[in-house]
Amino acid sequence: MRLTTADLWESAPGTVLRWDVVPTGRPVPAALSLNQRNHLAAAASGEAAVWLAAAFDVDGPIDTVALGRAWDALVARHDSLQLEALPGDGAAAARRHDPAALRWSVTTEAMPQTPGETGATLRALLDRHCAPLRGYPAFAPLAVSRADRSTVVLGMDHLHCDAYSVAVVVDELATLYDAVRHDRARPLPTVATGVSGDIAPVPPDDERIGGWHDFLEARDFTLPTWPLPLGVPSGARLPQASTVGRLASADRLEALGARARAVGVSTYAVVLASLAAALHDLGGPERLDTLVPVQTRAGESGRTVGWHTTTVPVSVRADVSDAGLAAAGAAVRNGVRLGAVPLDQVLGSLPRPLVQTRRDVFMVSWIDYRHLPGADRAAERAATHVSASTLADDVQLWLARTDAGLSLRTRFPDTPEARRGLESVLETWAARLGTRH
After folding, report:
1. Are residues 224 and 150 in the same domain?
2. Helix/strand/coil (H, E, C) string of the chain?
3. Mean pLDDT of the 244-263 span
4. Are residues 137 and 265 part of one domain?
5. pLDDT of 243 strictly over 50
């Protein structure tokens, strides 16, 4: 799976197709998860749409009938794609549409002539149609049809999905399309339905709530921020900038994994401790505090498309000795353990208000795509995860492990100071990851 962002995304030119979806049945009330409620509150306050797109290639020109049937089958499998958010002055509400009562139609949207024009056309369509409060659906089924090899794109507002979902969508949609085109059975496993993504509350005296308090109290109840200067005026948000690149080769990552196993920690813990050390090399603190998204799927929900993540705190020292890595591994494990506590319960238990000095949250995400659905065919499908470009006032890092190694996508405010700082950090971090200890 290749990670990129809308501002860096281009696509070979062709005929851009768009499918419209019109509900014709009677929807029923539906529940929203904490993530979805918070997302809709941000959208209602005027925040830009935050969409994720799954893109992949198929042979030959698009068979519009077959792809239309594949879209329909995909939506029928995943109830999150049947969800419509309802605007209102009070608490967020939603309803669910019967997939059997959806009417699909396809139209030719544009015929751009260059990769840049094609990318701009796709971005504009995704920005327009993947908005959570504009009615159903908040996703955009698109394709770029070409004579030799075409591209299928499903853009989804965050209401419908998370990063894990993008891999599921690529695998299932590619499988469904191929099955319809060749009149074969659809060999897809059963999907769990009615999975909200919310975590069950824990007892008020659960010691994991105390773990959250300890992390926040050490920071004076202020959320973590990128520890180096970004050149962003207080209270401002600027257009985001992005970078995408390889942080470590497969061979180097295998060597890091061997060292991690020798110490009894995850490869992610080694990579995170190396980031802390790189930041410290450049004037950052001795301890790096960050928030880490973790997915909450388990058992039958493993193929569910939806927003099934929570956020956990992790604090690691700038120490890549064996003892330092062991401590980093313990910090990562502890963070995952704290993920069993609902965030709204954590916030409701705090002895004083939480301070958020920036709108964005500094985080360092990690996904090992080798274990996600469709990993064995991601390269041949040119599977790509595209994220919307919006405004930023902090740094966010997405690490993606595949058979090719470790890639990194960054998101940060577009200032000269932030660009220089990120370039230095990435160079130092890569060097740290290549150092033998």
Report:
1. no
2. CEEEEHHHCCCCCCEEEEEEEEECCCCEEECCCHHHHHHHHHHHCCCCCCEEEEEEEEEECCCHHHHHHHHHHHHHHCHHHHEEEECCCCCCEEEECCHHHEEEEEEEEECCCCHHHHHHHHHHHHHHHCCCCCCCCCEEEEEEECCCEEEEEEEEEHHHCCHHHHHHHHHHHHHHHHHHHCCCCCCCCCCCCCCCCCCCCCCCCCHHHHHHHHHHHHCCCECCCCCCCCCCCCCCCEEEEEEEEEEEEHHHHHHHHHHHHHHCCCHHHHHHHHHHHHHHHCCCCCEEEEEEEEECCCHHHHHCCCCCEEEEEEEEECCCCHHHHHHHHHHHHHHHHHCCCCHHHHHHHCCCCCECCCCCCCEEEEEEHHHCCCHHHCCCCCCEEEECCCEECCCEEEEEEECCEEEEEEEEECCHHHHHHHHHHHHHHHHHHHCCC
3. 95
4. no
5. yes
